[in-house]
């Protein structure tokens, strides 16, 4: 911790800070400059309370030096870790493409989706049975019936299923229905009770970034899951909220190299929700792979015109197939494969 | 709904949109300009799917006209509604000041807090037993024991208690401990399952604005609660996330007059979390009252230096008392009282 | 300057940083913790280049400690300074209200405006002769003719004139027409050549905050003016750009107490541009005075329906008069006057 | 223009709007729904004033339908246009890489830079002689001497020179020194007088996006240049300001496909300023090419450790060469070349 004293701080105030540091079991290091005095606190920073330091007399501000995330930090696992989803490695040289509709609608729609996803060469399938909707009057998902349709469809092609969990009370059901990857949505990134619960199970978790979550908050949300014992975490960038209104969200491509440096865990991207329009998906998906993403979550619907939600952002099966071609070429250009 | 056709849209494409509108039971109104054709869909907009319209051939974009919130809209209740908290009216001429510590720590701390809150002339008391913390390693609140301490302390002054609910599974406990006002925190503003549950009980709810929630999303979150049958909703502006780093959040004072126009429900402000520093609280609290807020949620601690969390944003009992004086004067200046 | 070394930094890398610090004439202060080594550089921080330090081998990051603004910093002038506009003090106990239309249109419109501004009790008058417009096809202001109309109208009531300068080449004209206060608009807050030029004249300058300028950048922009010799600077908060779309900008009320702490110069607020609608102005204006603003810049038009620009945000003369009443009461409530 | 009437609007108020529309030479189209009345104004929207409409009695809000940019709109030039820089086409199948240092320092540094830029296979060279700096005390560029050094160095490899113009008064000098591409920096994107002046010369202009400029504002800024007669405009995305503090700016990759759809003009990307760190540049540069950018502006310095500004974001000559290899492979993967 670094404590910057106010310009007019007295020696007694400096002593007060020193005493506080010692009382908490750390060592101080006082640097007296011509204009300012700076105090470094050496030792376990977590024993100090930033807010307490900032209200000690004479203190201008205090700043943490150590990062607060531990288990998910790359420091603790420099070579990068791979999350195993039923034998499919996320985080290795292969870029995993996860395709499927926004929401589960009918058995037939899911069967057609699974066929298209498999035919395009995707390695996993996505689909929502529980849907977070802005309006209470909008379709909220088929619920448990949706999980059934999904599993039945996905099994025909041996595709692992990826689906969103919104409510802690449904976790047992997700386990019973053998969901392969639990997705935590953007709005729940800091639903701490939900994070704690998925931290207690042994299932891969896709943790989407909150709409306005900083990288540091996102890493701390993952730390909540990891602290419970579940280290099978996959980060998913899905666009952030900014001032721009020409598209739904701004895909934060910079998050990819930055997360790769900060954490050993894999990072995937959802280009469909970021832009919000199907015609933007190819450019964003290509950019994500070129920037080093370990996978993509792409919306596809057998017939977008009939989709029950987000019809405008789903690719057709044909468009997905074409996009897979470009993604393969780009992955190769940077020494990976799809 | 207004549908703007692309410049080069064909008559057949216009017909396609018209057919879609009619198929959904609405009427069309086609305006052909020199450059653009615009189609209005007259009737119940909720029968139309915006995303579907936007992928019909020839459509440039579609825009909703009607607001999606109904119960909470001022249109439905033009004169403004008052939420009754054990006889204390929120939303009337009196500005309600709710004081208390960030978190419940000990029985003694809560007793001292209740004494100070009552002495300053506040009408309700706040305090957190369950704390949403960015880090899994930080103090997470005393839990149920905290509710006990809180109730015991508040009862001595007959102060209604306001406390945050984070987990749906704790709602019964909140009812059993007779919490007077359930607070939904910023991070849970779109925790839809939680909103649905508090919509089913008959308790006043303070709904804090999400860090980057738009006014429209906030109103829709309240609509989730209202749709369940609970109309005792109090909006609480607590600062939004922007690019500025000199303070924690930006208190969005404009939200006050805008909400007052859009909804009939009361609006309060939390100046403590917005700025994040005790020395900013008086200016922000005064501004909020001057802008028309129906109440304030102010952090105070009997001894901020010893506070277990957010020590730097809590007022001392003395500072709270002084601030109450200014707030009284400002309320009077605009024809209200504290 | 504080330099945090990477966890795996070698002793030789620490030495490299120490050498760099000494080579630039500063002294180092090395703190070796269990996990991290931190180096403080004591002396004139401006001699060090942050970017250079950050690319030295083994460096994790470097952070400035000293503030980069000097002349405008409160440290250099603790008691607060007053800017004198033809005898009217900005920054003292009186809150100065500056009223007038968005743009100068005709002599008659300016005469009526000046009459209304004076009748309402405002102390200065605003109006734009040169208008920054998003579209090249929109009305760009009357130019020099506008300055003439403005001066003629204002003189009848001895009101100092406040008007915006957009182009360095017009500064001589502004001096010739004896403009009393030069306004630098939000879009030009970092037009450094313009700042340098107004720094060379002896005229009060209102420096509006850029749409997404941080407090630190704003202070540095003022420092540009001050470094040229002109210390008559008035900060004007006018709303910042955020994700919210329900109103034009978010008035950043927190900027008032924060600026008051960081700089000795006066701070005023423009509630008209912030919200963008006349009906929002009273709430925002009242909040600004309650939060400690030294003045307000309020748009008023003798007949808003006929205004050539921003018709929807101008108050009528009657509305301005009513608002002045509330502002007087609020100012008194906090020990000031209007 | 679409005008939505308030729910309680009277027939007389609807008539008032209709009259206003007719008075301005447009035709109305009234749609009366069960809940709301909507009025379409058919004809030349620019004859209507949005703000005027919004203050007519009974009006809830008005919305433009037509886009305000004309010359730069893709509608007017569907096949995409190519900007010619001394025979080098920007906007065709070749992706143009523009390399060079942040600022011009010495003749030797520029010669070494030019050698490295040419050796890496870049087609143009960048370098700043006039530098917009946040602090008035920082190095402000070599000025005219810098232009001389730059031209001398670039000529040895016949590289067109790209450099930033900050002040209208320097435009003649830029013409005299035969600058090949005038760059307008982010902070000057809405310096309208500067835009008007570069609109009068016949030189390619790179228009950088303002830090918080919307796509629509950016297009309007280009329209200012185009309206003056200069259609040789190249858009340059360079990162936007958001809430994220882990990196300088967020590269808005979505802007590429969106601009490509809205305008016929070429779009390039500056990955160096966006992230602010050299180690982020490869991922961002690769993403930009994969997303369809027509070129890149990349900072390179013969010896970053000695750079006078932004040392931490410059690539070394070796790193630039390596990056060019990846960019070539990615360009090929999507059917283009570098």
TrEMBL record, chains A, B, C, D:
Give the top-rank taxon of the lineage listed in the UniProt record for this protein: Bacteria
* Tagged with keyword Glycoprotein: no
Domain spans labelled DAHP synthetase I/KDSA: 92-324
Listed GO biological process terms? aromatic amino acid family biosynthetic process
What is a GO molecular function of this protein?
Answer: transferase activity
Give the residues annotated as coiled coil: none
Residues forming the DAHP synthase ferredoxin-like domain are 1-67
What are the entry keywords? Transferase
Q: Name one Pfam family in it.
A: DAHP_synth_1
Protein name in UniProt: 3-deoxy-D-arabinoheptulosonate-7-phosphate synthase
């Amino acid at each position: 911790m670094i404590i910057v004293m106010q310009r007019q701080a007295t020696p007694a105030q400096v002593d007060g800070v020193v005493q506080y540091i010692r009382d908490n079991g750390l060592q101080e290091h006082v640097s007296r400059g011509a204009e300012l005095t700076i105090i470094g606190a050496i030792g376990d920073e977590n024993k100090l309370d930033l807010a307490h330091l900032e209200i000690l007399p004479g203190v201008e501000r205090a700043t943490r030096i150590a990062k607060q995330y531990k288990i998910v930090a790359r420091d603790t696992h420099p070579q990068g870790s791979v999350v195993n989803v039923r034998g499919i490695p996320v985080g290795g040289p292969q870029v995993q493409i996860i395709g499927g509709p926004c929401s589960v609608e009918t058995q037939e729609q899911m069967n057609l989706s699974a066929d298209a996803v498999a035919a395009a060469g995707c390695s996993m399938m996505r689909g929502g049975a529980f849907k977070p909707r802005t309006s209470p009057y909008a379709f909220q998902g088929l619920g448990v019936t949706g999980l059934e349709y999904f599993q039945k469809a996905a099994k025909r092609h041996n595709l692992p299923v990826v689906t969103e969990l919104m409510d802690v009370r449904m976790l047992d059901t997700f386990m019973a229905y053998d969901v392969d990857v639990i997705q935590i949505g953007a709005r729940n990134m800091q639903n701490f009770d939900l994070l704690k619960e998925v931290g207690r199970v042994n299932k891969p978790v896709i943790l989407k970034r909150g709409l306005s979550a900083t990288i540091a908050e996102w890493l701390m949300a993952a730390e909540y899951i990891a602290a419970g014992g579940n280290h099978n975490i996959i980060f998913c960038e899905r666009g952030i909220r900014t001032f721009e209104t020409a598209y739904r969200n701004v895909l934060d491509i910079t998050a990819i190299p930055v997360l790769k440096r900060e954490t050993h865990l894999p990072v995937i991207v959802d280009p469909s929700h970021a832009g919000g329009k199907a015609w933007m998906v190819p450019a964003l998906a290509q950019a994500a792979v070129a920037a080093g993403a370990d996978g993509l979550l792409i919306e596809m619907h057998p017939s977008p015109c009939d989709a029950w939600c987000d019809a405008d952002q789903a690719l057709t099966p044909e468009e997905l197939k074409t996009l897979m071609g470009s993604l393969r070429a780009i992955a190769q250009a940077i020494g990976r494969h799809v």
